[in-house]
């Protein structure tokens, strides 16, 4: 079993199930994510906030949860995460941005 699949215990069940059933696919997906992450100059907190903004813009609650979890693990201030939702208001609209804020708080309030 590859390292990427061994780390799937922390994945949401659906992603973990896919990784366990199709380890080669998961390994390639993880490698693509790593390559994209290392392809440019954005680092640290900035990278976490950008990834959160992309998840918010895509309207994916699961992705928002995942990126909030990772950002908090990296020491990003929860208020910076909430600011991403506020910055989204003029772009994705008030109702969607409020939804994103609630998704952020789902995780940030539990930490």
Mean pLDDT across all amino acids: 89
| Helical proportion, percent range | over 70%
Structural class computed from helices and strand pairing: mainly alpha
Let me know the largest β-sheet.
none
Q: Tell me the number of helical segments per DSSP (H or I, 4 or more residues long).
A: 7
**Poorly predicted runs of 5 or more residues:** 1-6
Q: List the helices and strands in order.
A: HHHHHHH
Q: Give the termini separation.
A: 31 Å
In CATH terms, the superfamily of the largest domain is AhpD-like
CATH C-level label of the largest domain? Mainly Alpha
User: What's the CATH architecture name of the largest domain?
Assistant: Up-down Bundle
Number of domains: 2
Secondary structure: number of strands:
0
Radius of gyration: 15 Å
What gross morphology would you assign?
Answer: globular
Beta-strand percentage range = under 5%
CATH topology of the largest domain: AhpD-like
GO molecular function: peroxiredoxin activity
Pfam families: CMD (PF02627)
Organism: Halorubrum kocurii JCM 14978
Protein name: Carboxymuconolactone decarboxylase
């Amino acid at each position: 079993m590859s390292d990427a699949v061994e780390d799937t215990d922390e994945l949401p069940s659906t992603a973990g199930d896919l990784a366990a059933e199709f380890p080669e696919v998961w390994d390639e997906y993880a490698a693509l994510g790593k390559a994209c992450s290392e392809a440019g100059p954005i680092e640290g907190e900035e990278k976490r906030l950008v990834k959160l903004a992309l998840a918010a813009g895509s309207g994916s609650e699961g992705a928002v949860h995942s990126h909030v979890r990772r950002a908090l693990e990296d020491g990003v201030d929860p208020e910076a995460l909430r600011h991403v939702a506020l910055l989204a208001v003029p772009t994705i609209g008030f109702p969607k941005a409020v939804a994103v804020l609630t998704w952020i708080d789902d995780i940030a309030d539990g930490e």
